[in-house]
Amino acid sequence: MVVIATVGAAIVVLLVVIVVVVVVVVVVVAAAVVVVVVVVVVEVVVIAVTVLVIVVVVVV
C-alpha cells in the first residue's frame, strides 16, 4: 500500500509539474506574440506617419 501511495503521489507531482511547465510556456509564448504584434504595429504607424509627413512636405 505504501508503494502504491508513493507511486500515486509521484505521478500527481509529475502531472502538476507538467501542467505548470505547459502553462509557463504558453504564457511566455503569448507574451512574445504580444510583443511582436506591438512592435509591428508601432513600425507600421511610424512608417505611415513618415510617409504622410513626406507627402505633406512635398505637396506644400
Q: How is this structure best described in words?
A:
With 60 residues, this protein is mostly helical. The protein has one domain. Helices cover 97% and strands 0% of the residues. It has one helix and no strands. The protein has one helix at residues 2-59. The longest helix has 58 residues, at 2-59. The chain is rod-shaped. It comes from Elysia marginata. This is ABC transmembrane type-1 domain-containing protein. Keywords: Membrane, Transmembrane, Transmembrane helix. The chain crosses the membrane at residues 7-29, 35-59.
- Main sheet overview: none
Principal-axis shape equals rod-shaped
Count of individual domains: 1
Counting H and I runs of at least 4 residues, what is the number of helices? 1
Q: State the distance separating the first and last CA atoms.
A: 87 Å
Structural class: mainly alpha
CA gyration radius, whole angstroms: 26 Å
Low-confidence stretches: none
Query: How many beta-strand runs?
Result: 0
Mean pLDDT value: 95
Order of secondary-structure elements = H
Beta-strand percentage? under 5%
Keywords: Membrane, Transmembrane, Transmembrane helix
Transmembrane segments: 7-29, 35-59
Organism: Elysia marginata
Protein name: ABC transmembrane type-1 domain-containing protein
Q: What are the SSEs and their pairings?
A:
Blueprint: H1 2-59
Keywords: Membrane, Transmembrane, Transmembrane helix
Protein name: ABC transmembrane type-1 domain-containing protein
Transmembrane segments: 7-29, 35-59
List descriptors.
single chain, 60 residues, mainly alpha, 1 helix, transmembrane helix, ABC transmembrane type-1 domain-containing protein
